[in-house]
Write a structure and sequence with these properties.
Elements: E1 9-13, H1 19-34, E2 41-42, H2 43-46, E3 60-64, H3 71-82, E4 88-94, E5 100-103, E6 110-115, E7 127-130, E8 139-142, E9 149-153, E10 157-159, E11 169-176
Antiparallel strand pairs: 1-9, 2-3, 3-4, 4-11, 5-10, 6-9, 6-11, 7-8, 7-10
């Protein structure tokens, strides 16, 4: 568990989910993506225009997971990482060309991204961030790995464009809002 949740930081837990938990989420994602009747929100209609880079970024498909069958796995992961459950959870499907420009999630107190699949550095979809503890003096990056959790609190971060040759980048986004 993260020791100092009040500190502005980025914290990466390489094995937040075990292979069985990853399998449960991947199976559910396959069901959702394979069902032509599944309804998705999208980043153009759900996010502020600065996050969609004024509609230049490719669309990220969004599916609310708050009442979904995988919610217990997400709840367990959030509680193990932070000691509490997240306020909101969604499936994010980063389509070819989609990305998220630099932002700081100012609407939320903190967030966790749970990665559902592995990426190679040449696939795009990398998580970049600046660490507030070093006065934003450098940019760091993380190549997504299945089962990893990335906790962000008040740090500027972005996702690089997903290349057209790569299958969609799948994540679970979990946000925390303090009462």
């Amino acid at each position: 568990m993260i020791e100092d949740l009040d500190k502005d930081q980025v914290y990466i837990e390489e094995q937040l989910l075990n292979p069985a938990q990853i399998g449960v989420i991947q199976e559910r994602f396959n069901e959702i993506l394979g069902n032509k009747n599944s309804e998705f929100a999208n980043s153009y209609t759900s996010w502020d225009t600065e996050i969609t880079d004024n509609y230049r970024a490719g669309i990220v498909l969004l599916k609310n997971l708050d009442n979904d069958a995988v919610r217990p796995v997400i709840k367990d992961a959030c509680e193990r990482m932070t000691g509490k459950d997240c306020t909101k959870a969604i499936l994010s499907v980063f389509t070819a060309g989609s990305y998220i420009p630099w932002h700081d999630d100012k609407k939320f107190d903190a967030a966790i991204t749970i990665h559902v699949d592995d990426y190679d550095w040449q696939d795009g979809g990398m998580f970049l961030y600046t660490d507030p503890s070093d006065n934003f003096s450098g940019i760091k990056g993380y190549i997504p790995r299945a089962g990893a959790g990335v906790y962000v609190k008040n740090a500027w971060h972005m996702v690089t464009p997903v290349l057209p040759t790569r299958p969609p980048r799948l994540t679970v986004q979990c946000w925390f809002i303090e009462d």
